[in-house]
Sequence to fold (220 residues):
Amino acid sequence: MKFNILTIFPHILDSFFSESILKRAIDKKLIKINTVNIRDFTNDKHKTVDDTPCGGGAGMIMKVEPIYKALQKTKKNRKNRIVLLTPAGKQFNQNIAKKYSKLNQITFICGRYEGIDARVENFIDEKISIGPYILNGGEIAAATIIEAVSRLIPRILGNIKSIEEESFSANQPFELEYPQYTKPEIFKVGNKKYRVPKILLSGNHKKIKEWRIKKAKKHK
Fold:
C-alpha cells in the first residue's frame, strides 16, 4: 500500500511515521509514505501556492495549477484513490477504512489557508472529513486515515484477533468498546480500592462475553 501526501509542509508528519507500528510497517515495506511538496510544482522563484479569492473575501486560496501538476507526478494504478481532505467531505469511519485497505494507493490532498480552488475537485475521487471541525490543514487528517487503514492491512498488526474483536469491527457496528482491565487486580489510592470486576477473573468465557456485550456502550 502506498500513501501519497500532497502538502506544503513535507516534513510535518516525519515524527509520526518514524515511531511505533507504522515505522515497522514501513521498514518491512508493507506500506510506503510518499510526501509530495506542492511548492515544487510552482513556476515562480517564491514558490507561490496561493492567491487572493476571486470575487473578494478574507484569506488566501490554494491555486489549482501546482496541485494538478503534483497529482500528475503520482503514479496511478488500477486500485488508486485521490482524496481531498476537507471539513465539507464525507465523514470518515471504519467502513471507509476497510474499503481503503483493499486499495494499492491513496493520494491525499492537504489544504491550507482559507481553502483550495474548487477546480481541484475535477481531479479527485472523493472528499473526506475526519470530523465536524476545522483544522489548520489536512495533514493531521491524512495521518489519522493512514493509521486507521494501515492497521487493517495483513501482517501489520501482530495479532489479527485485535482487529476482529475490537470496536466497530464485528457485525454490531453501533457498539463501542467494552471496559478493559489488566493487572493488578486491586489498585489502591489512599483508602480507596479499585478492583477488576470479579467476572473477568472467573475463567468463565461465556459469562465474560455476556458481561462485555452488556457493558458495551451504545454508539450515539
Notes: Helices lie at 14-17, 20-27, 64-72, 94-100, 139-150, 161-165, 205-215. The first strand starts at residue 2 and ends at 7. Residues 174-215 form one domain. The CA atoms of residues 84 and 121 lie 8 Å apart.
